[in-house]
Amino acid sequence: MEELQSGFIYLDHAATTKPSDSVIQAVASCMTECYGNPSSLHGLGLQAQLRMEHTRKIIANSMGIAPETILFTSGATESNNLAIRGASCTYGRRKKHIITSAVEHASVRNTIRALEEQGYTVTRIVPDENGQFRAQDFIDAVTDQTFLISIMLVENETGRILPVGEVFRKIKKKYPDIITHCDAVQAYMKIPVKISTLQADLLSISAHKIHGIKGAGALYIRKGVRLTPIMTGGSQEKSLRPGTESVPLIAGFGQAVTEMQNSIETRFQKAIANKNYLLNLLAELPDIIINSDDADPESSKNSPYILNFSVKQIRSEIMLHYLESRHIYVSSGSACSKGAKSGVLSAYRIPDQLADCAIRVSFSEQTTEQELLALVQAIRDGHANLIHKK
Ligand code: PMP
Asked: How far apart are CA 369 and CA 372, in angstroms?
């Protein structure tokens, strides 16, 4: 089969992506030719620093901001920790209230939970009965104690798009002192991410979701926002992220953005076509319940890169392993890390019996219709085989 030439079908791009050839080349050339420490005062150090500053400019341009507002980190988990903990140390001394959504990634969810255990109060906004977030619910939650609001742009399990821009714009207009943070990991390079539209003070992104390498990320910090460092060490990254920067991974990040930034719209259209194709195929199968918001794949309420559905009565991990036996890699739709339930699907009021059977398929621009057809054939066979074994 043509789609199995690589040996498998990879449909788990929300978990991570394959580094592109040009990213690997950029990383390798940096490691061989440009291995100086960017803090060193000699030529090799300067060369490394220039490579890093080049990526800073590329990322800043992609979001319409100044390069000095971009800080390099080891990934979005670190960016989210630095944003939330760093803002809490600075701005959460007198005020103690944080607003967030009920569907955040563990790196935001557990960071905010840790702060709650230290005495902060937290309001977690849940979706409405249609599985959508209402901007007004976030705004109504503001109290005179609120100092921070953290909302993700594209939720990583079902692909719903949260109304971050609308919420942050309204909050900033009425309460300019509240710090706004956005986890934009699943949005960056997939839908437009412009700081001026979002009105984010802080925004997290990660390289490995866009064909870069694991271990590189960035945090946008609006000029004038003062974060307290969460690590102590040298003066790298304005002392906010001490430690020698991973210049090769950062160079790869820059290359990934360069490659992707001019094709956001065409890739978006391809993802819509793929998602529609998959939805139509799934509609032919029995016992499939769509957990993503599929009402209109072209609507601004859902990312076309992610489709979450349940195969009734077949638990996620059973189907996952069946698909794996057919060399198809997807993700279990309700788990965040290795089977631990994240609670995101239950926030959308998806019953536990269905959440336990959820599968997440996530596309890249390279996903083909043949791959999706092979997936659906495998699900159909899996369903027929496994349901009898129950
Ligand atoms: N936020 C979201 C929405 C994510 O999907 C992920 C990756 N699963 C992260 C944060 C964490 O990113 P990283 O792997 O770079 O730490």
From this structure: 5
**Cross-strand partners of 359:** 309, 332
C-alpha 183 to ligand 1 mean position (Å): 8
| Residue 294 main-chain phi, psi, to 5 deg | -105, 10
Cα-to-centroid distance, 40 and ligand 1 (Å): 31
Query: What is the residue with the minimal CA distance to atom 5 of ligand 1?
Result: 156
| Nearest Cα residue to atom 7 of ligand 1 | 15
Ligand 1 centre distance from Cα of residue 72 (Å): 15
Domains of the chain (ranges; CATH) run 9-19+263-389 (3.90.1150.10), 21-261 (3.40.640.10)
Cα 318-319-325 angle, rounded to 5 deg: 95
Using CA atoms, how far apart are residues 310 and 358, in angstroms rounded to an integer? 4
Sequential pLDDT tens for the chain (390 residues): 344 456 899 999 999 999 999 999 999 999 999 999 999 999 999 999 999 999 999 999 999 999 999 999 999 999 999 999 999 999 999 999 999 999 999 999 999 999 999 999 999 999 999 999 999 999 999 999 999 999 999 999 999 999 999 999 999 999 999 999 999 999 999 999 999 999 999 999 999 999 999 999 999 999 999 999 999 999 999 999 999 999 999 999 999 999 999 999 999 999 999 999 999 999 999 999 999 986 666 667 899 999 999 999 999 999 999 999 999 999 997 654 555 677 899 999 999 999 999 999 999 999 999 999 999 999 999 999 998 766
Ligand 1: atom nearest CA of 107 is 10
Unique residue bearing structure tokens 């990634």: 105
Catalytic positions are 336
**With a threshold of 0.90, does the pTM exceed it?**
yes
The atom number, within ligand 1, closest to the CA of 75 reads 15
| Ligand 1 atom at minimum distance from 154 CA | 3
